């Protein structure tokens, strides 16, 4: 048995009052003249034993009543037969991840979890402290009725959510709830991919409801990606599906069907297309619907436009011109003067791909030209020695001669690649600056197979008239966005924060990034591919994953509901103690009245 | 309507209220007047010294009682009828010990004040019956001894004797009863008015002796209501004013046992009286005077 307010146990000292009164009762100093004292003396002599027993009984009844009241004031909690539970800080963690939208046994798993959560909240008392924490990070608190309404309002989340974070949050809430009985009631579909590791909850008791039932084989779009993100105008869509067998798919772009096909599970299919249209466009890859509808489509975004007109300056070196010619031949670029590929010391205007000078003595001229062009970077000291280059599409390359790139005050640029930990390729408004000249003596990038595609991407993605790009995120994921993003179309008032990042919307889809008033990129939100893997953990596996002080996993709702609010292993004993004290006082009154007769 | 306007009978009103209206003598007269108003006159009409009424002469009537004066003046034959006279000799034995000077509540008479008014009323009632009435007052000694007389003026002497000194620390009841027996030479009536806070066995012998010589004995046991149920006192040391015996007790705790003891004591006194052929009545000091008076008078009426 424990006490919620142990300080009140000090009231038990009041039990000494009837004890002292009993011991001092014959020491009263009041003298009363009474002629019939002989009868009184005779009564005491004849009934002495009865009177002693009665006085002792009265004293015991009074002491016991005071002790019971003191115990009740200390709000004891103990295990006793009967209904009720101690005041409990209980957090209901409701897994509303995408996988709970699957229909099992004729209804979505989430509906079953909500129903059971409602039954659990019906057992709450006014003395409990309650919270509702969902896998998507939502936290509600209030009365049981309010939380029941909140539970009913929960909808399936667009992604996996963060169940471990929700559990940690719930643990923090119940530990700070001010009640010794702390419990987390977790309702989950037990999806294995949600439990990557062990979750430590050392100071709380956890009861888990994980319904039984075998999920049907799921068919989902596992991948939908436009390659490249800018089609000028040709490009491709990579399709992957997760299915027990080959699945038919449909690619839609801008609301119109772009292609249909069939793909085997686990295989990647690239569907080439050259659609008409210009600008940023949303697309989807869909498969036939099944029991989990939320992963039957996956979104992608693509920029549609004409090939970039490009010219190569002689200062760009011997490798740039053939590469550009290859792009022109493949239709991804055309000869023209819109974009220049040149050495930093020779470029006349932007947009341009600016390369470091081959001769270090030209570094000063290059810096002066950069200043003239308004590029906020300068070439610093020459670094020699082989350094690995890290970045998208450049992994594996190395640089043996490079300049230190020095950012000027106010420089807002993206670092596309680094060498030896230092910026090696940076991009900004209308320029891409490379810290090494594109010659084999400075870097092996020009002789690598990825050089031409990289050059094409730089031209189309970074140096065309509409800069921007595609960001991919899961629902609710924190995403760092380019500095030029001023808004997000389709996401209401979503804006980048002071740290240059924003939280991806909860619902999957394509949200266009706005620069000024025009679309300049896209944020593609798709559920985590693992969320489509519906295999569940067994109760014992779930128990192992939860590192709590007391974990009970129930697969039946009644057992789960019964095990909730049982964290302290008992219930509040104040009411029965007060009832006992009342009975003792009634008994004391009866004994007293009987002693007084009908006086 | 006539009944509603009639003043209340003094023998039926609250004794304390009645006592507040006047001296013992006056109060006793009111009591007796009220008592006689409610009493049926004796159907026995005899030829005694107290004239009652005339009735027509009938053949066979004793000519000694023929009223010759009426016969001479009005030529009408009537005989005189008289109240019956028994010539009873009664002695009232009153306990005036210190225990009798106690009252359980300020609104009640002390046992002695109550008993004095009762004695005065009883004496007056007996004297009006042409009985001879005497008085013995006692505490730890005999304080007053008034031999029985039947004269009407004797009542004033009895009432005056009630004011004699008293207040001793003990009750010498047996001795007082012996004295009463000596005062009445032929069988008569002895009324003991006491709170009976004395030894039962000693009294047994005295009552038996009185009965042995043919006296009719009536015991009026005067009790304050608080002596029956211990009153409203709570935790205290109870002290006997006569013996200084002190008993600490909580009234709430011993009340039930005390009541049982008092009832047992009353039963003992009742059994003693029954065994010796004496009448016994408990009289509470909050009861109207008519109640004990009627009981004592009933004992008188049973006598020849």
**pLDDT averaged residue by residue of chain A:** 85
Average pLDDT score of chain B: 79
Q: Widest sheet of chain A: strand order?
A: 20-19-21-22-27-26-25-23-24
Number of helices of chain B: 11
Classification by helices and strands of chain B: alpha/beta
Q: Got a strand count of chain B?
A: 11
Largest interface: A-B, 33 and 36 residues
Oligomer: heterodimer
Low-pLDDT parts of chain A are: none
Describe this structure in words.
Helix content of chain A is 25%, strand content 33%. A 9-stranded mixed sheet of chain A has the order 20-19-21-22-27-26-25-23-24. A 6-stranded mixed sheet of chain A has the order 8-7-4-9-10-34, sandwiched between helices. A 5-stranded mixed sheet of chain A has the order 12-18-17-14-15. In chain A, helix 1 packs antiparallel against helix 3, helix 4 packs antiparallel against helix 5 (144-152) and helix 4 (109-122) runs parallel beside helix 11 (557-563). In chain A, 45% of the residues are buried. The mean pLDDT of chain A is 85. By secondary structure, chain B is an alpha/beta fold. Helices cover 41% and strands 22% of the residues of chain B. Chain B is built from 11 helices and 11 strands. Chain B starts with a helix and ends with a helix. In chain B, 40% of the residues are buried. Residues 1-5 and 40-49 of chain B have low confidence and may be disordered. The A-B interface holds A 25-44, 46-47, 50-51, 54-55, 58, 592, 594-597, 599 and B 98-99, 102, 195, 197, 227, 229-230, 233, 235-243, 245-250, 252-262, 265.
